[in-house]
Design brief:
There is one protein chain. The chain has 306 residues and is α/β, with parallel strands linked by helices. The chain has one domain. The protein has a 6-stranded parallel sheet. The chain has a two-stranded antiparallel sheet with strand order 6-7. Helix 6 crosses helix 7. The longest helix is centred in the first third of the chain and has 32 residues. The relative contact order is 0.17.
Length: 306
């Protein structure tokens, strides 16, 4: 019996060692060889979720690279920022989207619910610190191990094929061709009452990681601004404006906000209440380009579009 137990324990230990190697070795290779380099002409980089992804057509903005990605909370943006900034010393200015919905508890789901985590975690897991891993594991170990499995398979394939290029799959301008007729009712189209936003529950994890992004960029001596893309006047999350501004002033008062929330756009320049279509993005991006040429990011003075 003792011999049997000894062999069983050895078998289990060997299996765990092999599995750990399959997970850890490709992750280490990817962390070491990953390529996040962008063209040296880009001095300004933008990070965020789908709002800036659809608003900033970087082909119309000189020296500007849009690296936003749909449904990306700050937890994963933080991993991306560290790699992009460290591998691109030509970057002078970092812009981080700070929209009304990014303070909301909805961002908790974007961080660790399987639907979102299974998409984002495999991309950035190799670059996470143990404290980041711990955040996900402690919230739901079952979801965490499912996503580890997905990540391990993808990392193994990347390592085998020497596919270490990340620059082409971490975000960019997304062109939306659709145009939507908008009204006050559209902000409540999904049955969400505006009163739900008057006293919102905050996503503490999202705010913590926004702070981490800010601190990291300051440590790297980069000029840093929060930025808010245009939103439709009846967009549901604009109801939390008071709380949104209070959070900014309380926790991020050391960073200036470049606020384009009220940039004048017609209804047919929106794809939906939160996103510009290609027509709106074109007009907005040309305006941003002119503002950059005029020196909007030269100083740390705030900018608010009335």
């Amino acid at each position: 019996m003792a011999q049997f137990l000894k062999k069983t324990a050895l078998f289990i230990l060997t299996g765990l060692t092999v599995i750990s190697g399959i997970v850890a070795i490709p992750a280490c290779l990817i962390n070491h060889f990953s390529d996040f380099t962008i063209n040296k002409k880009y001095k300004i980089v933008l990070f965020g979720h789908s709002h800036p992804e659809c608003a900033f057509n970087d082909s119309l903005i000189t020296g500007f690279k849009n690296l936003s990605h749909s449904a990306e909370p700050y937890f994963y943006t933080y991993q991306k920022v560290k790699k992009v900034v460290s591998q691109n010393p030509q970057i002078e200015t970092v812009l981080i989207e700070y929209s009304n919905n990014q303070i909301d508890e909805k961002m908790n789901d974007w961080t660790w619910d399987y639907k979102y985590m299974s998409n984002m975690f495999p991309i950035y897991s190799s670059f996470m610190h143990t404290t980041d891993i711990e955040v996900l594991f402690k919230h739901d170990s079952g979801v965490f191990f499912n996503c580890i499995s997905i990540s391990a398979r993808q990392n193994l394939f990347k390592a085998i094929t020497f596919d270490y290029n990340f620059a082409d799959r971490i975000g960019g301008y997304l062109k939306l061709n659709r145009s939507q007729r908008l009204s006050t009712g559209d902000s409540l189209a999904h049955g969400i009452s505006k009163y739900r936003f008057l006293n919102p529950r905050l996503s503490i994890i999202n705010l913590i990681y926004l702070r981490k992004i800010i601190d990291y960029c300051k440590q790297q001596n980069k000029k840093l601004f929060l930025i808010r893309s245009p939103q439709y006047k009846y967009y549901e999350y604009r109801y939390n404006e008071k709380v949104y501004l209070d959070v900014k002033n309380r926790y991020f008062k050391d960073v200036k906000l470049i606020d384009f929330n009220n940039f004048p756009l017609s209804d047919d320049e929106f794809a939906d209440p939160g996103h510009l279509n290609m027509k709106g993005a074109s007009r907005f991006s040309n305006y941003v380009n002119k503002q950059i040429e005029a020196g909007i990011f030269v100083s740390d003075s705030g900018f608010v579009m009335k």
